[in-house]
Amino acid sequence: MRKTVVRVVTLLGGLFFVLEFMLPAELRRPGAEQPYFTNPLSPWLNLATDLVIVLGTMAFLLGPINLVRSHLGNLFRGQRGAVESAVFLLFLVLGLGLAGLKEFPDLKRGLGLAAADSALQSGYNLLFYGLINAFGATSMALLAFYLVSAAYRSFRFQSLEAGVMMITAVVVLLGLVPLGTFLTGWLPTEFQLPTWAAWIFAVPNSAVQRAVVIGAFAGAFAAGLRLWLGVGQKTE
Amino acid sequence: MRLLARLHRIDRRWLYVATLVLMLVPFILPLTLPAGHVARTTRAAFELIDSCPPDKVVIIDSSWDAGSQAENRAQLEAVVAHLCRRRIKFVVTSLGVTALGPDFARDIIRPLAERAGYEYGRDWVQLGFVQGVAGALGPLIDRFCRDLWGLYPRDVHNTPVEELPLMQAVRRGADAHAFCCFTYAPAYEWISFANAQYGLRLVFGCMTIMCPAYYPYIDSGQLAGMLVGNVGAAEYEALNGVAGRGTRLGVPAAFGNCAIIIAAVLGNIGLWAERRGRRAAA
Amino acid sequence: MTDPPVIWLAAFVTVVVFSYALKDNYVYRLVQHATLGATVGVTVVVTWKQVLLPRWWAPIWAAWQGTVVDPLTGQPDHRGLLWLLALLPGLLWYFQLSKRWFWLSTLITGLFVGTAAGLAFKNQILLIMPQLAASIKPLNPFVRPDPALTYGPAWPEPGTPAAWAAALNNALFLAALLATLFYFFFSVRTDHRVLQAPRRFGRLAIMVCLGAMFGSTVMTRMAYLLDRLMFLSHDWWEGQVVPLLRFFPGG
Q1: What's the angle, vertex CA A127, arms to CA A123 and CA A133, rounded to 5?
Q2: Which of A6, B87, B143, B215 stands the most exposed, by the fewest C-beta atoms within 10 Å?
Q3: Which chains have at least 3 CB atom pairs separated by less than 8 Å from chain B?
Q4: How many Å lie between the alpha carbon of A225 and the closest alpha carbon of chain C?
Q5: Taking CB atoms and an 8 Å limit, are C216 and B211 in contact across chains?
Q6: Contact: C230, B249; criterion CB under 8 Å
Q7: B5 pLDDT exceeds 80?
Q8: Would you state the pLDDT for residue A29?
Q9: Which residue of B has its CA nearest to C42?
């Protein structure tokens, strides 16, 4: 029974947008001023969009609640990582407070903190630019080191296919940076590395990517239809 | 041969240190390399934006944060510098990716706009962030094109859009001369909803890692142009005649790529030498 | 952002995160948890302020206060209060936190899965149909194709070497496209002698594509590292450390 209800809800969820797309915007007899059919679902598209946004966003506390539960549990049970959990909770409160006071000036005035505006802004800047921005950007930067390590350990010239892949990668790597022009700038334009790199992206890469996309389209279409109609799922 | 075989067993931490040292070299020594090639995708993006008539605006969607600022920042700087030089008016949005997008965008755009003498509300407007739901960006983009005022009733400073002079010319996203999306990987729904239904001309500014996937859409004309990472930003700056962050990162990027090539070569030499040594021992 | 405390803190955090590449350490874990907490806090506030407040709460409050007027009747319009009903499906998300009532959250999840599946039809059809059309490329170097049916740069003068190059590129494109589609076609047996060549060609084309993707990946990862090195060298070292060193004798 429950799964049937979920399947019906899934079907209804997709039905509006499928019908809105499939039905014509309007149908008009030749020479007629007024259409004899207009898409009845189009006027509701704005409301449907707003609903999708609002309902989707309402889940925004799910992640934070899970994290707070987990870290509070760590803290109160005195488990390993309790100090880290305390730091998380402290900075969560700090983030909520500083961002809240920045985004809601009325709240700042209500709490009598209007005079501390400059200090609060500095605190927010420290948190946002000094901590969040720096950590996020540097975490991604670590990937460069791991890539060097991966290239060193696994990029092996062991077959024709691997060799083709390596040579292509080298042409792209040198062609996309000024080094390619420096090394081959003395050659005619057709034989310079940047030209070859551009050709690789525009012709073979484009062809293969399109083939994959077309193949995936067929699969995604079938999978989407199955998901939407609940076909092939186990019944209770 | 034994020395060569040891190349196969270098501790990864020495590789990390060597990479760091190699990539610090261009920041210490003033090296330059010739700029040259401008990709067709970058030139197409530049010419599209450059051809904006005085009564039209360009819409920029800046949906990046710390996770992709490494390349999106230079792209946004290059395009906004171009817009300001040509006195083209623009509207900035942040649709569906990150709630921190408007803050990052404002830090880049506001100084450039102020230096160019742009007045907020008349020459440029920032509309802020709208939450998107993964897999359901389509209706959002559809509404963006049909009814921009409805999607963004207020700007990022909470001013009603009807009170902003520039917004009188942009009631629908589809009315824009061009739409530029700067994010890690611009959503395909821009192509299927904005371009296919409303004919909005699209320029994507994406991370280099994502660019191979968008080339089929350049080939089919669904995408008008594309800035490929920092390289695209450097090429755009060259076309605009103003060197910026993208150009400054060209030589260091070359060193970085060399680090990968050297690592792959060392690994292959080491493996070859080790196998040869084992065969000789056997 | 040029505030000295911000730059010093960012430099400290950058070095701490780099230290993780050598070995996981306690300071890194503390900074990691601090960042996670701060990010969650800021994101919650910004999401409420930029999405739910204007789109959900503001219409409810305005309808409650009677500040919205129906243009047809001139009377206060209380229809905004209907947005309160969105709480019913919206709160279903939070039943994921309960083992016993978890199944209620599958209703809202199912709604969004259905919505995404329904939207995927429109998205995929509008995305892929032009791709199929654009795959039909001109192959004759002696004939100028209809400009309305082609994309990209203008076709060169027919019969010239440039036209031959363009035709060859298109032929190669088509061959790679068909060979790749053929390579991934698992529904029929392809181990016949005659079918080996197209399979091999398809595999080589895929390898070229993978090489291009690897090169692109390297560019992006290196860009991340360069961004931080640029910050450390320009904003921190030249902007903060060097001026400080000038205060010391010999600086």
Answers
A1: 145
A2: B87
A3: A, C
A4: 7
A5: yes
A6: yes
A7: no
A8: 83
A9: B100
Task: Give A52's contacts in chain C (Cβ within 8 Å).
Answer: 112, 115
Calculate ∠ Cα A94-A95-A98, nearest 5°: 80
**How far is B109 from B126, CA to CA, in rounded Å?**
10
Q: Tell me, what's the pLDDT at C185? A: 78
ipTM: 0.89
Q: With a cut of 50, which residues of chain C have pLDDT below it?
A: none
Percent of chain A predicted with pLDDT > 90 = 36
Sequential DSSP letters for A182-211: HHHTTS-GGGSHHHHHHHHIIIIIHHHHHH
Mean pLDDT of B3-27: 83
User: Which pTM was predicted?
Assistant: 0.87
Pairing of strands B202-206, B124-130: unpaired
Q: Please give the Cα distance from A127 to C3 (Å, whole number).
A: 12
Mean pLDDT, chain B, whole residue set? 90
A149 in contact with B at a CB cutoff of 8 Å? Answer: yes
CB atoms B39 and A134 under 8 Å = no
Give B217's contacts in chain C (Cβ within 8 Å): 131
State the nearest Cα–Cα gap between A33 and chain C, in angstroms.
27
Q: Hey, how many other C-beta atoms are within 10 angstroms of the C-beta on C27?
A: 12
Element (H, E) at C23: none
Report the distance separating Cα C77 and Cα C62, nearest Å. Answer: 9
Chain A: closest CA distance from residue B39 (Å): 7
Residue in chain C lying closest to B132 (CA): C51
Instruction: For B113-131, write each residue's pLDDT tens digit.
Output: 999 999 999 999 999 888 7
Cβ contacts of C219 on chain A, cutoff 8 Å: 173, 176
Nearest CA-CA partner of C227 in C4, C8, C5, C14: C14
How would DSSP label each residue in B124-189? EEEEEEE---TT-HHHHHHHHHH-HHHH-SB-TTS-BGGG-GGGGG-SSGGGSSEEEEESSS--TH
